[in-house]
Write a structure and sequence with these properties.
426 residues; 67% helix; two-stranded antiparallel ribbon
Length: 426
């Protein structure tokens, strides 16, 4: 028996693994210096290797990439925030340009679904590991502990962990009882919630046949984070999936699905009530007050310079408008940060990608659902410049224009390059 090693698939897994751990994991906190720029360099190098494996890049794609780069460069020229130029170049411009070219290649080759599901596989694996360690370590005390020291908010933090795969980095008080939250390999729960929610969406909407075990693992893991944000958005994802399947997919509904179509509105109202109760409870806490202040902070910074904001990743300038900050010394919400630091110029860059994605995807319902979930994650998590956000945005930008794609397929059919019966798969 012979085994064929898919080197491109291995490199893709490596790329997505680095993107996963880049989101405030404890592992990257061990890196001294500007760890986020270093990670951007490494990811850029791996993405370049992947691009070389695709060999050719269409001229039209290079032109689009050049237009995007010009738009992004103008921001540097206009703002002149020289102290943050390196961060902008390496964490935003270069990474996004390479992700855009990779996204274009994946869309053209019909490999996008397999690519994003690799990320879901990674998330499910780490979720399973953290869940097992949380149960047998944190809850049952059956596993040996160790302590890791790492930099957090410019101070050294010592955190108990199990095999460096599940950190007891945060606790929460529920009904007067202090509970340890499942942080996985991350330094804080909100950062762990981001890949968990993206993984849940991919499992429910993108995987052709839903793997129930993966969905169950992700949902239980989300619950053990005790994150009001994660649980509320997870309920939104599940509700969207139920609505799309029951009311919008054109197939004959019978049996239990017919019953579900009748009782679903009641179920959705119950889920909405639970989500609203979670959110209202959160708003009554100091964390809730901090998030409300974050919104006001972003608005005040935006008003100081509506077009360009106070500067990309210029956290020091943004914090001067804040009354409350997180334990890491910044804001907790992404969209207020993006509005305050980037102004209309950068927020429109993000909006255009989302609109283009919805406009050109074949299944608009899935696209709309994803954009809604992504906006909720961006709003509640300070991740506007994370590598995962850059990748998502690049995938949205690189999706082929649906009209141009139809014309291309028509030409291939007319010239005999593609048989008519195979045209729909091109």
């Amino acid at each position: 028996m012979t085994y064929k090693i898919n080197s491109r698939g291995i490199i893709e897994y490596l790329l997505l693994l680095l993107i996963f751990i880049n989101g405030q994991s404890v592992w990257i906190r061990f890196i001294d210096g500007n760890r986020f720029i270093l990670m951007a360099w490494i990811v850029s190098g791996i993405t370049s290797i992947l691009l070389l494996s695709y060999r050719t890049i269409p001229k039209s794609t290079l032109i689009k990439s050049a237009i995007i780069i010009v738009y992004q460069l103008f921001y540097i020229v206009a703002t002149r925030h020289t102290s943050y130029t390196n961060s902008y170049l390496y964490r935003f411009m270069i990474v996004f340009a390479l992700f855009f070219l990779l996204g274009d290649a994946l869309w053209r080759k019909g490999k996008m679904r397999q690519f994003v599901l690799k990320f879901a596989n990674i998330v499910c694996l780490f979720a399973l590991i953290s869940l097992v360690l949380y149960l047998f370590g944190t809850c049952l005390n059956l596993l040996s502990q160790s302590v890791d020291s790492y930099d957090w908010a410019k101070v050294t933090k010592n955190t108990v962990n199990y095999f460096h795969l599940m950190y007891e980095a945060q606790t929460s008080e529920i009904l007067g009882i202090t509970v340890v939250r499942n942080c996985g390999i991350f330094a804080e729960v909100p950062s762990y919630a981001v890949p968990l929610l993206l993984g849940l969406f991919l499992e429910l909407f993108i995987r052709e046949r839903i793997m129930k075990i993966n969905v169950i693992i992700l949902i239980i893991t989300i619950v053990t984070t005790f994150s009001s944000k994660a649980i509320s958005i997870a309920l939104v994802v599940i509700a969207l999936k139920l609505c799309v399947d029951v009311y919008f997919i054109r197939k004959k509904i019978k049996g239990w699905k017919g019953i579900l179509k009748i009782v679903l509105p009641i179920l959705l109202l119950f889920m909405a009530a639970v989500a609203l109760e979670i959110v209202s409870t959160k708003l009554d806490t100091s964390s809730g007050f901090m998030r409300l202040d974050n919104i006001y902070t972003g608005w005040k910074a935006f008003r100081s310079n509506p077009l360009f904001g106070v500067g990309f990743d210029n956290e020091d300038a943004l914090n001067t408008y804040a009354s409350y900050m997180t334990s890491s010394g910044g804001l907790a919400m992404g969209i207020p940060v993006l509005i305050g630091e980037g102004g209309l110029y950068l927020i429109l860059f993000y909006i255009y990608g989302m609109v283009r994605f919805v406009k050109n995807i074949k299944n608009n319902l899935v696209a709309l659902s994803f954009v809604l979930v992504h906006i909720l994650i961006l709003f509640t998590s300070n991740i506007p410049y994370f590598l995962s956000t850059m990748l998502i945005l690049a995938i949205e930008y690189s999706i082929p224009n649906i009209k141009a794609r139809k014309r291309e397929i028509g030409v291939k059919v007319a010239t005999g390059c593609v048989p008519v019966k195979e045209a729909k798969y091109v």
